[in-house]
Known about the structure:
single chain, mainly alpha, Helix Hairpins, Serum Albumin, Chain A, Domain 1, two-stranded parallel sheet, 21 helices
Amino acid sequence: GVLHEDLRLLLDTALPPKRKKVVLGVGDAKMGAAVLEELGVQCQTGGVVAELMRGIRLHFPALVRGLTAQSAAKAQLGLGHSYSRAKVKFNVHRVDNMIIQSISLLDQLDKDINTFSMRVRSWYGYHFPELIKIVPENSMYCRVAKFIGNRRELSEESLEGLEEIVMDSAKAQAILEASRSSMGMDISPLDLINIESFSRRVISLSDYRKGLQEYLRSKMSQVAPSLSALIGEVVGARLISHAGSLTNLAKYPASTVQILGAEKALFRALKTRGNTPKYGLIFHSTFIGRAAAKNKGRISRYLANKCTIASRIDCFSEVPTSVFGDKLREQVEERLAFYETGEPPRKNLEVMKEAVVEANEVVAEVKRRQEKKEKKRKKREKRRLEALAAAAEEPAENSVMETEENDVGAKKKKKKKKQQQPEESEPEPEPEENGVEEEEEEPLPKKKRKVTVEPEEEEKKKKKKKKKAVAQD
Length: 473
């Protein structure tokens, strides 16, 4: 009954100030009543409004400038996709489609394994017919047939392997004795190879069935814990699969859940005016099998009632727990005891109060664990980001250090080169005050200086000698 905020804002901006004279045409009577209650605007609903809305939708590209039919079709397609995506999007941990597929596959596997095992029995029975009575189970028979192969080769040494398969020493001894006195015909090696390969396939299928059953149990504990705790994982999954989804099962009344799976018997009874069926799929639960013949109808009606409650709790609770399922199971047990011994069961109000208190505690614990996991996840994410940032900074620091080392190395090389330069290199010309530069002669090397200086000294000595000689004369 509360008008949506987006619609309220749209109407406030679109409507003129004088709202008393405005009459809105609304296709939905509930929406018109909500607009009248919230905004005080009169709304008209009826067939005329629906026709007007249809005409506006049809000619909308012509009424709005800049809007083509192609863009309007794209907008409609995008809106349809987003609406469908929102309808399909669910919590991945509470998707019941996987339960429907897995229980269908489980039933199909049961039929196939049964058929294939009968084929192995009839095929291997020509060679060892006495084995069928000793090992009646299908998967174990295939394992034993694969292990034995040719019965003439079975000896005392194979007794330990047989005991591991059949898990019974008496059975293993009986198989050994039967193989020695069997009336079966001989078998060729090629036929034996085919029988062993087919037995291996049947064994692998039975192993896969066990894994699939574990998967179904885990999914039922996540999606419908109360229903699985009340009636079992397999029966609960069959109810969900037959109804189509957990939501559909939650919408069914208890009388429909009671005969769910017995529709043919129901309509045949209605057509022939006979007795209607008392139970459908819930007959496979343990409660109806344990009840007496006169109480089967009553206990099936009571069990269907509790199954409806459990499915609704699982479907519409935020954090599904198995507390309610355990309490409902206790109630069914008490009702069975009441039918047999007359002991009065507890009232439903008391049981539900206890269940609500326990469920609140469990939900609080689950939320606390989820918060801890979220904190740990955030810490791990923070550490990862810090590690990435540190790893990104390290190359930058290394590059800076390398550039500094390169600069220092270049400076050292320059100094060494300057020291290695000869001292006789040309000095840079110094400018004089008047700006005229004097050209200086290039200094000669030392060896050349010695060579040039020696003749001058000899000439001076010769002159001195001549003067002395002249003075003496």
